[in-house]
Amino acid sequence: MSRTKQQQREETMEALTTTARRLFAEHGYGKVGLETIAQAAGVSKGALYHHFSSKADLFRHVLGVVQHDVGEQIARAADAAPDSWAGLLAGCRAFLAAATDPETQQIMLLDGPAVVGWQDWRELDAESSARHLAEALTGLMAEGVLAKRPVEPLVRLLSGAMNEAAVWLAHSPDPQADLAATMDTLTPMIEALR
Amino acid sequence: MSRTKQQQREETMEALTTTARRLFAEHGYGKVGLETIAQAAGVSKGALYHHFSSKADLFRHVLGVVQHDVGEQIARAADAAPDSWAGLLAGCRAFLAAATDPETQQIMLLDGPAVVGWQDWRELDAESSARHLAEALTGLMAEGVLAKRPVEPLVRLLSGAMNEAAVWLAHSPDPQADLAATMDTLTPMIEALR
DNA sequence: GAACAATACCGACCGTCGGTTTGTTTCTTT
DNA sequence: AAAGAAACAAACCGACGGTCGGTATTGTTC
Q1: How many CB atoms lie within 10 A of CB A90?
Q2: Which chain D positions come under 7 Å from a protein C-beta?
Q3: How many whole angstroms separate alpha carbon A166 and alpha carbon A187?
Q4: If we measure between CA atoms, which residue out of A27, A34, A35 comes closest to residue A106?
């Protein structure tokens, strides 16, 4: 039984994506060569370039996968909450937890903006994590829980605050305690917008 | 009349720093070669490596200069304010204005963390912009204007929020209006901490 | 002021790496 | 079965970061 072309394609891309994700996360974008990635994935550099148009293109694809995963974790946490308000806070906490993982962080927060550019990074972000934040906020405004105001600046501010906090938490000697402290500071700041 | 060694050193480093700052800002760290920088500065690549140990080292030096400049702009704005509270807000606005400049932004916010690492980036940040923020906040807490709480998480959150907001503002079609909207959202969030 | 040392600088060279080109194998299609 | 396309391999190219031997200029010592 021989593999079909589509199977073959999917398997190779999966192997490259997974391998690249691991290596980019571990060493950073600049310090990993394509030859290394290709070999670790069990294919040649030619094969890599058959599926991706450039190193940055491969990274963009990996970034999309990472963002997607984070987005799902946020959605799960938010859906499990009893109401919209608790959902927002749970989503924030879920994001901080996910983005604190060093490997996710290196790709999503450190190399991401620099490699693909802020514009593209923002678009990928808007398709995953930021979308949940924006939807939660607009929902709460419609319910009257939060005062109505432009959502865009608020999303940017909160998104940036949590991005930075996540990197800080990853370098913290006591992430558990600092995560709690961060939420204790973040919560009243959001509550101020009622 | 011949130049002294120190003069010569300072002139060359100044030329390299200024040139590198311009080119890094314009094209991004990854897309500028050292040969280009050296030639534009009127020296050879050998001279460059006589003063800096690597490309990243040159960038780190440039980053320090940029951070320093931004820090001074913040200090000026804060000192001109009538009281500590107004100083904090003026400092925030000054930071947003300074970091919205595309060239400052590319070096300080986009490439910075990725090139020198977050740890080093944070240290440089702490010596300039973040220091003013932390000092203003601790001062206001001592005065009793703000409720006492751990400063570190708060600084991280606010710092991150403004970093992200600055990048967003730089891509905005109407930066003036969006800057106002950002401050209108940021102010009540800080006021919530009284 | 002559000899020596230290510093600033040059430019050829090397290794690595992103990207291209060419060739081979394997599946699909008719 | 034959033609064609897709997946892959591998040799190759050019650019770039970094090194190194060497030169020129300034500083120091006797």
Answers
A1: 19
A2: 6-11, 15-22, 25-27
A3: 15
A4: A27
> How many Å apart are CA A161 and CA A119, to the nearest integer?
18
On the CB side of A185, CA atoms within 13 Å amount to 23
Cβ distance of B193 and A193 shorter than 8 Å: no
**Per-position DSSP letters for B70-89, written without gaps between them:** HHHHHHHHHHTSSSHHHHHH
Instruction: Supply the DSSP symbol for A174.
Output: -
Q: Are A160 and B160 in contact (CB under 8 A)?
A: yes
- Among B63, B78, B38, smallest CA distance to B123 is for B63
Note the pLDDT tens digit of each residue in A137-168.
999 999 999 999 999 999 999 999 999 999 99
User: What pLDDT is stored for residue A157 in this prediction?
Assistant: 98
Tokens matching residue B4 = 């002294």
Among protein residues, the one whose C-alpha sits closest to the C1' atom of C17 is: A33
What confidence score (pLDDT) does residue A3 get? 72
- Judge: B182–A119 Cβ closer than 8 Å, yes or no: no
Cα–Cα separations (whole angstroms), residue B121 to A7, A27, A103, A143, B129? 44, 17, 18, 41, 12
Q: How far is the CA of B47 from the C1' of C3 (A)?
A: 27
Give B103-117 pLDDT, tens digit per residue.
999 999 999 999 999
